[in-house]
TrEMBL record:
It holds the Pfam family Glyoxalase_4. The keyword Flavoprotein does not apply. This is Methylmalonyl-CoA epimerase. InterPro entries: Glyas_Bleomycin-R_OHBP_Dase, MeMalonyl-CoA_epimerase, MMCE/EMCE_epimerase, VOC_core. Transmembrane segments: none annotated. GO terms for molecular function: metal ion binding; methylmalonyl-CoA epimerase activity. Belongs to the methylmalonyl-CoA epimerase family. Keywords: Metal-binding. Residues 3-131 form the VOC domain. The keyword Transmembrane does not apply. GO terms for biological process: L-methylmalonyl-CoA metabolic process.
Length: 134
């Protein structure tokens, strides 16, 4: 893993949260994107070298809707940049970590993604991200 790619924050209302984070960071989000496979609408803010991803559920069965119902709004996951997501999934599996996704899938912000189950990472949901090269 190379660096923190972003921190994901689960929100109930992405428009209200965009206003809150705009006031906090002093600038607008740079991208809004629907990720149908995950049942979320995302909004990204750049804050110095770091990114914050706001996630709003687009349907009641999405992981974000279930997270908010159980825990309320707040930090959802930490994402890390990797060079080769397939090799990283294999390495982490061999190290004994439990993967939610055994194969990468397309995510937001032009990334391939895969999540590690929080039961194997001290309760923290970890996302692996690899830039999709075109």
């Amino acid at each position: 893993m190379k660096k923190i790619e972003h921190i994901g924050i689960a929100v109930k209302d992405i428009e209200k949260s965009n206003m809150l984070f705009k006031a906090l960071f002093g600038k607008e989000h740079y991208k809004i994107e629907d990720v149908e496979s995950e049942g979320v609408k995302t909004s990204f803010f750049q804050c110095g070298p770091n990114k914050i991803e706001l996630l709003q559920a687009t349907h009641e069965e999405s992981a974000i809707a279930k997270f908010i119902e159980k825990k309320g709004e707040g930090m959802h996951h930490i994402a890390f940049t990797v060079d080769n997501i397939e090799k990283e999934i294999e390495r982490l599996t061999n190290e004994g970590f439990t993967m939610i996704h055994k194969q990468p899938k397309e995510g937001a912000d032009n990334k391939l993604i895969a999540f590690l189950h929080p039961k194997s990472t001290n309760g923290v949901l970890i996302e692996l991200c690899q830039e999709i090269k075109e």
